[in-house]
Structure formats: structure tokens, C-alpha cells
Amino acid sequence: MAPAATERNHAVRRVLAGLLVANLAVVVVKFIVGARTGSLAVFGDAIHSSVDALNNVLGLAVVRVASKEPDDDHPYGHAKFETMGALVIVVFLSVTIFELLRGAGERLYQGAPPPEVTATAWILLGSTLVVNVWVVWFETRAGRRWNSDILLADAAHTRADVLVTLAVIAGLLLARSGFPWADPLLAVVVAALVARIGLEIVRRSVPTLVDARACAPETIQVSAERVPGVRGAYAIRSRRAATVRFAELTIAVDGGENVTAAHQIADLVEARLREDLGLHEIVVHVEPC
């Protein structure tokens, strides 16, 4: 594996390991507050935060697999396992949504006393909010720096956690003001916010899994045809897997060129595409014209 790829995978694992500690602390605090207040919304928030911790454990395992070298069964490498891991996060989010809606429906139908929140509980909830805001900022920055699907998906999930906590606090304030229905109703709002984040993760991950193009064919064509000796470029395809971008194209060269000269032109095309478009793995077919 290239040194840059090794550094990238080590960095992603370090980020996930550090965030696992932070998320476990948040989970413990929220379950304590939920147990003391009896708030469904707080319990839902705690469940949602526990998914963050599970995501970190999943991410550590997935990145380890994704960093493996290509082999006979996976000649293009294992990078897509990281994107698949991002979709597994959506499965966890779906479970959270189901549990929140089920509990909220029961409370709205059967009724329940408003939760009692002490000053200590307010402080604890506020502290988890601060921690999660920092996690979103740090993980998003790291995900963009290292172009990591799993970090960006996890950051999106934690962003939902921030929205969930804000909604929970609003619900507790309303319940305290004499609106006992606010807690289960806000749990429904939380479920909607979580669903939106899940859709964002799917929209970002699916193109990689279905081999959507990494670069417009016209852009590759223009760059390739700037190389001296290239009469034309066509049959262009591209795709990406995590940080690796693949491209394949056919170039037309003068039929009078010998084999050595034709291959030199192909090498120049590869170098140009890497420099101009940031492509990594490039296959150039040569056809005489």
C-alpha cells in the first residue's frame, strides 16, 4: 500500500478511536439522565448516541478491511467496504427511528406524567450537547481532509444527535411548563430529523457503490487530447472507491507510429490525467487511425 494511503487509514482509525471514548461518555450521561427523569425523549436520545459509539466500533473494523491490499478476489482493492460501512449506519438509524415512534405512540395514546428534571440533569444534558458539537466539527474536518465516507457519515449521524438533544431540551421545557404531551411529540420530531440524516448518508454513499462516474467524460477527453500525438479520445469511463478514482479510455494515434512511440503517448496521457484531474488508476487503450 502507498505511504499516503497508509497514513490516511491510520489517521481515520485514530479519529474513530478517540471519538469512541467521547461517545461512550455521552451515552452513559444520557442514560443516567433518562433514568432519573423518566423522559422518553431523553431515552431516545441516549439510544441514538449509543449508535454513535457502535458506529465508531464498526468504523474501526471497516477501515481495517478497506485498507487491505488488492487480492485475487478483489483486484480493485477493498475501499468500497468503507462506503458499505456508511450504509450500515443507516440501518442503525432505522432502528432508532422505529423505537422512538413506537414509544411516542404509546405515550400519546396512553398518557404519561411529565418528566421531572433537576438542575443536575440540565447541566449533564448541556455538557453532552457541547461534546457532540465539538465531535461534529472535529469529525467533519477530519472526514473532508482524509476523504473518508465513514467519518463523514458518522459526523452526519452525530449532527443528528445534536438536533435530537436540542429537541429533547425543548420538549422538557415545554413539559415543565404544563404540556405533558410535548415529550412524546418531540420524540416524533427527533425521529424525522434522524430519518433526514439517514437519507443524506444514502444519497452520498450509493453513487460509489453503483459505480457512478468520478469525472465527466468530456473533461477527461479534453485533458487527454491536449497530449501531443493524440488524435482523439473516446470510450471513456470512470468510477471511484473511497479515495481512489479509476478511469479507462481509448486514444487514437497516427497509424504510422511504432509500438514504442504509441506506448509513450499512452504514458503521457496517464500522467496528464493524474496531474489535471487527480485520477489514480488509469487504463489507456491505444488504437491506430
Quickly describe the structure.
With 289 residues, the protein is mainly alpha-helical.
Spell out the key features of this protein.
289 residues; 3-stranded mixed beta sheet; mainly alpha; 8 helices
Architecture blueprint of SSEs:
Blueprint: H1 3-37, H2 40-66, H3 80-110, H4 119-146, H5 149-176, H6 182-209, H7 217-224, E1 232-241, E2 244-253, H8 259-277, E3 281-288
Parallel strand pairs: 2-3
Antiparallel strand pairs: 1-2
Helix pairs in contact: 1-2, 1-4, 2-3, 2-5, 2-6, 3-5, 3-6, 4-5, 5-6, 7-8
The count of helical stretches stands at 8
Largest sheet: 3 strands, mixed
Which structural class fits the helix and strand makeup?
Answer: mainly alpha
Q: How much β-strand is present in the residues?
A: 5-15%
Net shape: elongated
Q: Order of strands across the biggest sheet?
A: 1-2-3
Quick check: average pLDDT? 78
SSE string = HHHHHHHEEHE
Helix content: over 70%
DSSP E strands, number: 3
